[in-house]
Amino acid sequence: MSKALAGYACIRCGRASPLQLVLDSRGCLDCQSDAPANLRVAYSHETRAGWDFAATQGGPQNLWRYEAMLPVAARDAVSLGEGMTPLLAAPAMGKRLGVGRLLLKDETRNPTWSYKDRLSTVAISAARQMGAKIVATSSSGNAGASLAAYAARAGLPCVMVTYAHSAGPILAQARKYGAMVLPLASKSARWPLLADAVDRLGWFVTSPFRAPVVGSHPIGLEGYKTLAYEVAQQMDGDVPDWVVMPVCYGDALFGMWQGFLDLHERGVIARLPKMAAAEVFGSLRAALAVGGDLVPEVDAEFDTLAVSIGAAQGAFQALQVLRQSGGTAVAIGNDGLIRLQEEFAASEGIFAELASVTPLAAIARLRAGGVIEPAETVLAVVTASGLKDLDRSLSEARPLPATGGSLDNALDYLEEHYGFGTSPDERKKIVTSAG
Ligand SMILES: Cc1ncc(COP(=O)(O)O)c(C=O)c1O
Ligand SMILES: [Zn+2]
Question: Measured in angstroms, how far is the CA atom of residue 330 from the centroid of ligand 2?
């Protein structure tokens, strides 16, 4: 690689290991038997010491403006223009949640409509540069669709290992990019298959593929740091009091936190935000309560609507961030999630995947419990578009029968189906306000 990468370091004990593209997903060998922990990329000091954050302001309108802090140079990037997504104020939803200032990082605007593009652009750029012949993932969700797009762009074959009954828009999306989707009869066979492919054939796998899970490939995680850089830039050097995001294995939570640490170390930001995880089954919450570095596998007691984050076991990388930042984890069930998705879309104009709505539910809970103060600034990361899981979120929508085409019919219809008041008096109002 043209960048001066020193290798990897364990995020828990600091043990150094040599740079290689293909890793076995076990994380640190010293921590493995004790509390499995991911590795992170270690840079040789000189490459990043003189980073001029302010100068990145004039860079390209994508995350490669931060190339000095990434493992690949911008000229070698496989890019679709990812990153530099809007930071939006959300006053109506903020009011509804009881938060003085609610901000949204709208990651639905990325090239494949999810924040996984930050990981994929960096991972595939490194893969191409280091001569990978084939890339693979065990995701049947956003990470897979994103990897498929970037692999297509790089001209690399991509294998997406999934299981027989997973379906829906995301899988269709991945196939459109030409990924070789491999459905296995048994869900649990996915990881051993990939482990075998790595051992015997040297496939470059970006997702986790061993239990207990430590997280995705460290080179890809570097891409998520740019979330923090962008937020600090968009807030003119300030940061929110809280950052709340949906968390599965904590890849983005960890990456974004590293980004804030980078900025804090360099004096670009004066303080650090608290990081909160919206999860489904409460594995991180349990780990925080018990103490220690082991993240337990908890019972998956129901079928979650937020399938993108439906893991029964979190990862140490997420736990570490919650502890270091003084944050917390909130378990979010299905109740009211589709309703909240619709309120969010209807009040703010942002249509988010069900998993991406969980931070809003978490914020409401943290406000009600007094953990988030009313005057604090809260940022929710909206990780993916609502088009991704329309098959699930449509379940509560009422069917709309066709009607006649006259305006009177239409007004009756609006009243019946939407409660849009059209009594004779109100009809008069509609007419006069239009005139
Ligand atoms: C939409 C969405 N949000 C959040 C996540 C959480 O992932 P992680 O915590 O591993 O970054 C995922 C993972 O698949 C996702 O698809
Ligand atoms: Zn270690």
Answer: 27
Residues 239, 373 within the same domain:
yes
Is the CB of residue 386 below 6 angstroms from any atom belonging to ligand 1?
no
Q: Cα 344–347–350 angle (5° rounding)?
A: 55
Q: What does the pLDDT look like over 316-338, one tens digit per residue?
A: 999 999 999 999 999 999 999 99
Q: Are residues 304 and 422 in the same domain?
A: no
406 found inside a domain: yes
Whether 379 lines ligand 1, by a CB cut-off of 6 Å, is: no
Q: Which tokens hold the place of 246?
A: 């949906």
Claim to verify: residue 339 and residue 267 sit in the same structural domain: yes
Domain that holds residue 419: 401-435
* Residue 338 sits in the same domain as residue 408: no
Distance from the CA of 220 to the center of ligand 1, in angstroms?
14
384 lines ligand 1 (CB under 6 A): yes
Identify the bridge partners of residue 313 per DSSP, sorted by sequence position.
297
In a domain? residue 91? yes
Cα separation, 317 vs 262, whole angstroms: 17
- Does residue 107 line the site of ligand 1, with CB under 6 A? no
Q: At what angle do helices 251-265 and 316-325 cross, to 10 degrees?
A: 40
> How many A from CA of 112 to the centre of ligand 1?
14
Tell me if residue 39 falls in helix, strand or coil: strand
Q: Can you read off the two tokens belonging to residue 115?
A: 């924040």
Q: How far is the CA of 34 from the centre of ligand 2 (A)?
A: 9
**Alpha helices per DSSP H over 238-279:** 251-265
In the numeric block, which tokens belong to residue 375?
């005057």
Whether 331 maps to a domain, the answer reads: yes
Half-sphere exposure of 114 (CA within 13 A, CB side): 28
For residue range 154-181, what is the model confidence (pLDDT) as tens digits? 999 999 999 877 768 999 999 999 999 9
422 and 300 assigned to the same domain:
no
* Whether residues 328 and 247 fall in one domain: yes
Can you count the helices (H) and strands (E) in the chain? Answer: 16, 13
Q: Which residues are within 8 A (CB) of 61 and not within 5 positions of it... i.e. 6 or more apart? A: 81, 84
Does 355 sit in the ligand 1 pocket, CB within 6 Å?
yes
Each residue of 129-143: pLDDT tens digit? 999 999 999 988 999
Instruction: Give the chain's domain count.
Output: 2
Is 45 part of a structural domain of the chain?
no
In terms of domains, do 237 and 355 share one?
yes
pLDDT in tens, 200-229: 999 999 999 999 999 999 999 999 999 999
